[in-house]
Write a structure and sequence with these properties.
Helix content is 36%, strand content 28%. The protein has 276 residues and is α/β, with parallel strands linked by helices. The protein has a single domain, classed as Rossmann fold. The strands form three sheets. The chain has a seven-stranded mixed beta sheet with strand order 5-4-3-10-11-13-12, sandwiched between helices. The chain has a four-stranded mixed beta sheet with strand order 6-9-7-8. Strands 1-2 form a two-stranded antiparallel ribbon. Helix 3 crosses helix 4 and helix 9 runs parallel beside helix 11. The longest helix has 13 residues. The radius of gyration is 18 Å and the shape is globular.
């Protein structure tokens, strides 16, 4: 396991820029991921909870490392709003960085609903839940959107996102998608919701309007990729929709992506929003 100081340095924008200028960025990343995966697992401490994450290959473990290293402040701020017995909804759960920690915070009387359309990602998620003894998690291998229908998704090694014109090299899957409120029928009302869906956030939020408008839902954390939003949708429209559901903005985290190259180093923002 690499020391946390080295892991933080590997995502430092200055260090990464120097490596790219020296044309050793790709090599440095491969060596870093090889060292990371030598033990096969990553350990993560968050809000007094200890979690362990595994993977099937170096790309996956590198992606998980990026999330738990660069998003730790957002993870902590989002999950610090959970209480024992709460339900946490994790849309775009990926390998479970949020879901595993949330499972331990809400305890046996609480629930976590983890949603992701990528079958390989869900396989790794289930393994991580097993490693951490998380028995209070419902896994939904489905794509959320604003209405039931078909979606064309591009599948990468570490995630799935709505197919875009520049995804020519990525396998495309046409999947059955569901509105979130419909898919969640019969499950406990979520107290905290996190949405990370690579540019499809407006449609996903629209399909969760009932869930988000409920007084039971106290906090929403949504990641916004401005460059990936569809025509006619921008950050202001997303924020207006969220406010119309009864929330007010609390904190914004803006940064540049510093993980897997498939993320194209785009600017993205986390909005952590609470009901007043």
């Amino acid at each position: 396991m690499l020391p946390s100081s080295i892991r933080r340095l590997s995502y430092n924008p200055v260090a990464r820029t120097i490596a790219q200028h020296l044309h050793v960025g790709g090599l440095a990343r491969r060596i870093y991921c090889r060292l990371l995966s030598s033990s096969g697992v990553l350990r993560f401490s968050c809000l007094g909870v200890e979690a362990v994450f595994s993977s099937q290959n170096r790309d996956q473990i590198g992606f998980t490392d990026c999330v738990i290293t660069t998003e730790k402040d957002v993870i902590e701020e989002t999950l610090s709003n959970l209480r024992a017995g709460d339900t946490f909804l994790d849309v775009g759960c990926n390998f479970g960085a949020y879901s595993v920690v949330a499972s331990k915070i809400v305890g046996p009387r609480g629930r976590v609903i983890a949603v992701d359309p990528h079958p390989t990602t869900v396989d790794v998620l289930r393994e991580n839940l097993k490693l951490n003894g998380c028995e209070n998690v419902d896994v939904l291998n489905v794509a959320f959107t604003d209405r039931t229908g078909l979606l064309s998704l591009s599948y990468g090694e570490t995630n799935a996102h709505l197919h875009r014109a520049d995804d020519l090299a990525s396998p495309v899957q046409v999947v059955q998608a569901r509105a979130g409120d419909e898919a969640l029928g019969g499950l406990p009302a979520a107290a905290v919701v996190k949405v990370d869906v690579e540019g499809h956030e407006f449609a996903v939020l629209g399909g969760l309007k009932k869930t988000l408008s409920s007084s039971a839902c106290r906090v929403l954390c949504v990641e916004i990729h401005p460059q990936f939003l569809p025509t006619g949708v921008d950050e202001n429209r997303i924020i207006k929709f969220i406010r119309d559901c009864g929330f007010s903005s609390v904190k914004e985290h803006a940064r540049a992506s510093m993980g897997n190259q498939s993320l194209r180093s785009v600017k993205f923002e986390f909005l952590v929003i609470a009901r007043r």
